[in-house]
Amino acid sequence: MTKVVSPAEAVSRIPDDAVLTVSSSSSLGCPDLVLKAIGERFENEAHPRNITSLHPIAAGDMYGVRGMDYLAKDGLLTRVLAGSYPSGPSHLEMPEIWRMIVEDRVAAYNVPSGIMFDMHREAAAHRPGVLTQVGMETFVDPQRQGCAMNSRGAAAPIVSRVRFAGDTWLHFPNVVPTVCILRATTADERGNLTYEHEGAYLGGLEQAICVRNNGGLIIAQVERVTATGSLRPHDVHVPGHLVDLVVIDRDQKQTCETRYDPAISGQVMRPWDSFSHAEHGVEKTIARRSAQELRAGMTANLGFGISAMVPRILLEEGHPDAVTWTIEQGAVGGVPLTGFAFGCASNADAFVPSPQQFIYFQGAGFDLSFLSFLEVDIQGNVNVSKLGKKPYLTAGCGGFVDITARARKIVFSGWFEAGAEIEMTEEGIKVAKPGRFTKMVEQVEHVTFSGDRARAQGQDVLYVTERCVIRLTEHGLVATEIMPGIDAQVDIVGASGGRVTVAENAVPMPASLLSKSPMGLTL
């Protein structure tokens, strides 16, 4: 008996009050056709109703893959827990899921992606939920927001502080999924799934196991179906006994702008000179200084924003494979991609399922992490997860909290001020016009990274900007390196309202950071 059904038939099996878990990372691996069918069924039948949806990483984006926005309907969706949400620039219309959140029409939570995967593992094994110290003293902690994104979320807490084995932990009770929706490339007639065109495995296997162990329904969206026995067992990532129904979407893409690139799925290797270098400018200067923290043979984690440019710095400097990059979607090695393809990598050495990648991150197996910041406060706290005026400009915390929880060294990158006009030559940088506001604030809007906890754990933390390099110290934020051309008292101390001080032994940043030609980086 075939498992292949139409999208409409597949979603007709989803009952009211179901808990959906969706495997996706923005447009990467998003089972968009099935999610669309759920929204259409609700429009036609008013079912399924009262759904809870779980998204370890965002489903959909703002660039043509709607994803979770298909579920954003009153009566259909009542609760959503996600590591991240669709995000994009302010000139685009706010996604409907964000509108529901800010209008308090759905109970919404931003849960670190690694913890979301941990929740699936614990529910699969019928253990009593997640016990973790990831997120302590951040917005994840119930002493702050407890992951809640609005009043409806705050009224139904999902995390508490508990004492266990002489220490304090965060406890997330199980939220047991009853329907899993995932995506692969190929299914055979028994439902065995391979991922040969995908840019990552993500968490589909673990999510399917969790739902199967709790007696639920697993729906797989694929590009094609092949005969039983035609798939190599070593290529099967999700075995057929975990799959109930298969939906075919012959038009599914690798990313929102990529129909299919074999280098993203590791089927070919690109020449190093085929990758573009970072465009010359202020952000490249910041990325260059960040790259100076690397040494050959290191393993480094990489986040979105300016920090994503660091691998391109190494390419330009002639060190394409001196560092092993690891990203939360699962790629190890190669060159992480930027822009719409962020979360993918070309020339990867391996693809690790995201749940295992997060175990590695939470235990701080890597040497250092490059991340970006929206704002930093006097305690060294960092916010990347909330902008009250334009909430959809940030995707939420994603894997940021898992990565920074125990990282030995963290390099945050960002502009010192928002909207400043900068004149840059190969000799120095001049602030031609001050920005609208400083990124160095008295208190961040959302604590995604805790400076106090970092100090207590002895973490090495740098904040790299176009004006200076700032270190987190026992005395707060101290600029230890100053960019040539910058007036330290005016452009740093004054511009930050005194929140950043300058070390007596501060040194100039190398002028080679400003060069239009390679800077001569050695690792």
Q: DSSP strand (E) fraction? A: 25-35%
Number of helices: 12
> How helix-rich are the residues, as a percent range?
10-25%
Question: Unreliable segments (pLDDT under 50, ≥5 consecutive)?
Answer: none
Largest sheet: 8 strands, mixed
Structural class based on helices, strands and sheet pairing: alpha/beta
What gross morphology would you assign?
globular
Counting DSSP E segments of at least 2 residues, the number of strands comes to 33
Oligomeric organization of the protein chains: single chain
The radius of gyration over CA amounts to: 23 Å
Q: What is the arithmetic mean of pLDDT?
A: 96
How do the strands of the widest beta sheet line up side by side?
A: 16-15-21-24-30-31-32-33
Task: Report how far the terminal alpha carbons are from each other.
Answer: 58 Å
